[in-house]
Amino acid sequence: MEWNPETLQFLSQCFLNTLSPLPEPRRRAEAALVEASERSNYGLAVLQLVAEPSVDEQIRHAAAVNFKNHLKARWAPSPPKEPNVPSLTPISNAEKELIKSLIVSLMLKLSPKIQSQLSEALAVIGKHDFPLQWPTLLPELVANLVSLTRANDYVSVNGVLATINSLFKKFRYQFKTNELLVDLKECLDKFAKPLLELFKRTVSVINQAVASGAADAATLKLYVESQRLCCRIFYSLNFQELPEFFEDHMDEWMLEFKKYLTVKYPVLEDSGNDGLAVVDGLRAAVCENIGLYMEKEEELFQKYLSGFVEAVWSLLVVSSASSCRERLTVTAIKFLTTVSTSVHHALFERDDILEQICQSIVIPNVMLRDEDEELFEMNYIEFIRRDMEGSDLDTRRRIACELLKGIAMHYKAKVTEKVSLQIKNCLALFAQNPEANWKYKDCAIYLVVSLATKKAGGSSVSTDLIDVENFFGSVIVPELQSRDVNAFPMLKAGALKFFTMFRNQLPKAVAMALLPDVVRFLASESNVVHSYAASCIEKLLLVKDEGTRARYTATDISPFLLVLMSNLFSALEKPESEENQYIMKCIMRVLGVAEISRDVASACITGLTNVLNRVCQNPKNPVFNHYLFESVAVLIRRACERDPTLISAFEGSLFPSLQMILANDVSEFFPYAFQLLSQLVELNRPPVPQHYVQIFEILLLPESWKKSANVPALVRLLQAFLRKAPHELNQQGRLSNVLGIFNTLISSPSTDEQGFYVLNTVIENLGYDVISPFVGHIWVSLFNRLQHGRTVKFMKNLVIFMSLFLVKHGLQNLVVSMNAVQKDVFHTIVEQFWVPNLKLITGSVELKLTSVASTKLICESSTLLDSKVRGKMLDSIVTLLSRPEEERLSEEPDVPDFGETVGYNATFVHLYNAGKKEEDPLKEVNDPKQYLVASLANHAASSPGTYPQLIRENLEAANQAALLQLCSSYNLSIV
């Protein structure tokens, strides 16, 4: 794309139309830009448009956003996740160099709004090219910083610093490697000194402005923001290890850091929350820097420590009282927490200091604020994410408790005493006036829950702050027994959370007495409360006694099962809880435990299909949807196990929904739908009803198999049909279609295992007379993969397939069919692939199958295989049967299975409750070890002396001993 007036006009019009409120011109413009983006120099042309002063600012801003996104997609494009999706054309090297030569100078000339977009675009390039493939960038940025600071243009200075901050962030988040350290050294050599010079120059500018009284809030704000960015860059450059330059100049940095924690800037801080936020941003950045030095360079930092602790302490006492200073409070408490767990913990030893921490820092930060109540009411998902799921480590409430935990590492008794006293005081204040002081009770509950210690490897928690049963009875039970489920919802949520957390410690009788009350809270109008009630019930049903026995059983919940299910489904109709994952998970768990009568099954399948039909319109919450399908699967499994006549009723309810998923191309749900269909097919008795045959026809279409995420579920469904309707296969060329699917799957390392599942099911369920016309084609496909791109996984699956073929259709058919494709190939395959890979087999059914088949092969192939190959095969069998998996297996440098990609649309998600029972093709063999020894002993009797020689010459010493031990165990001998 050449830069000329026509290009300027075309791009300007397109970007103008992308801003149109009308959908049609907007869609046309977007399509035209997508098409143009495939042409060379498109990115360069858009950048030139951004720089064109004659074009309207709004159009240039839209172009800057498009330029940034174009670079994200094409500077170093990733291969597409789905097959048959074309790759994006990367930007040419020549165009890249031109963009890199222009972008810095253009960025600095433009308005702040456009400048920020180009800064992000520059960071995109830097992610791939900086510093080694763009050595001129940092010197150019430094040169610009020098000239801009001399001109006192701090708007542009901050633009450059923001860009450098983005470029250097990788030093915080990437693992330390030689390559990263080389990049870091390059940046330190070119920027450590200029950073300090700029920082000190800005210190001087701020001091002069404050001293003279000439600094207005807007100007001072730019200076302070500049220092904040310098602090963030300092953090990045020091994150991996302390550089020599920073060690040499530590005094200069630390002097100013301390000043920013203690000095106030009234002109800025009193100009409104925005001004205070800017200064607090700098202070928070300083706290992160000193926290980093405390963690990584404690010895060198020691001489500054007491001064910083005092400064941070004083700052916290003030900021803890203010609701708008969250970021500063959190970073400051984090610093004190780091100190409390270090060798300098004695700073927190004195009783008066602990008292002050509890009263002036912990309690003010744990106490509920207006914004907490607002979040509780307006965004229940985020509230729960922070409160119950432990992702609130960067909130005041949790970090204040983390400080107490840190101090308790060395002064547990003192912390327990002080916090227990605070809990009693809070409860006493609540008792004086429950209506007005309810937040004190919430604070007491929160302290107990947050400071409880989780036991390693389990769900049990413990606390020294209270006696759990007494606290539960006096503080929690009154909330749970409150008749009004909507009164004081935050207190109810806290009580339910306590019940959930301490569920293992509470006696069953106590919990059972309150379970109907928890069921009542499912009717609460508060989304948080009915979510916590559902979570409490779900977690209770998971409690185990003596390691494995469920504490709560179907008998326990049966008296109120109908009310429980009714309340759960009613909760899903409440505003904003239509896709509440906690409710749906509880439904799944209850259905997995309860005795499901016909009445319950009927009500539940109706409720679940109604929900399914609704979410099909617009799938939004993948977690909710997963629990929904798990709920359907567990209901089908447990109800039909108890009453097989329910299958047709479930089909009547579910089929319209599943057909809607397929007809409306709700691709997110395809894997789930196919798994549910598999489950229904497997529950039917032959002959399979006619409506399934129509699905079978869809299943055989090549288009159904194009999306990799669908493949495992489709294979599962195909296997179900092959097992339940094997004779349908021989009609209308269906077997040919099935083997065509196998052929496609086997050709790719990412799907070959699924191909073997299809093939094994065919071999297992059809007679040799039916499959014999196709066997030659099967071997050709397998031998092609063996020649081109074989993996360890493929070879193991090949051994399993050949073993299944042998036990189902006999050695003669196996040998003849293979050698018909290529002369004597059977001998080669056995020697080069079967023998060495046999010992890598895993899985109890697979181990039995392959060992029995290999034993048959040894005993039946004396005319086909020489004694050395048979001896090595026996050595592999003994290894397989006598050694644990970890001794037999080596690391497999294999192609990862699909399903490892991240994303809602890209992955197959297995339904645990729709899992099929593993088929055992050798039910008549109970013990493969006994089968081996008995077969060898029996066969050896017909030619004495042959086997002892074969064993001596071919088995490892350890395997000879193991075989002898097996013979002794079964009282048999090989002569």
Automatic annotation (TrEMBL):
<dbReference type="GO" id="GO:0005635">
    <property type="term" value="C:nuclear envelope"/>
</dbReference>
<keyword id="KW-0653">Protein transport</keyword>
<dbReference type="InterPro" id="IPR016024">
    <property type="entry name" value="ARM-type_fold"/>
</dbReference>
<dbReference type="Pfam" id="PF08506">
    <property type="entry name" value="Cse1"/>
</dbReference>
<dbReference type="GO" id="GO:0031267">
    <property type="term" value="F:small GTPase binding"/>
</dbReference>
<protein>
    <submittedName>
        <fullName>Exportin-2</fullName>
    </submittedName>
</protein>
<comment type="similarity">
    <text>Belongs to the XPO2/CSE1 family.</text>
</comment>
<dbReference type="InterPro" id="IPR001494">
    <property type="entry name" value="Importin-beta_N"/>
</dbReference>
<dbReference type="GO" id="GO:0005829">
    <property type="term" value="C:cytosol"/>
</dbReference>
<dbReference type="InterPro" id="IPR013713">
    <property type="entry name" value="XPO2_central"/>
</dbReference>
<dbReference type="InterPro" id="IPR011989">
    <property type="entry name" value="ARM-like"/>
</dbReference>
<dbReference type="GO" id="GO:0006611">
    <property type="term" value="P:protein export from nucleus"/>
</dbReference>
<feature type="domain" description="Importin N-terminal">
    <location>
        <begin position="29"/>
        <end position="109"/>
    </location>
</feature>
<dbReference type="Pfam" id="PF03378">
    <property type="entry name" value="CAS_CSE1"/>
</dbReference>
<dbReference type="GO" id="GO:0005049">
    <property type="term" value="F:nuclear export signal receptor activity"/>
</dbReference>
<dbReference type="Pfam" id="PF03810">
    <property type="entry name" value="IBN_N"/>
</dbReference>
<dbReference type="GO" id="GO:0006606">
    <property type="term" value="P:protein import into nucleus"/>
</dbReference>
<keyword id="KW-0813">Transport</keyword>
<keyword id="KW-0539">Nucleus</keyword>
<keyword id="KW-0963">Cytoplasm</keyword>
<dbReference type="InterPro" id="IPR005043">
    <property type="entry name" value="XPO2_C"/>
</dbReference>
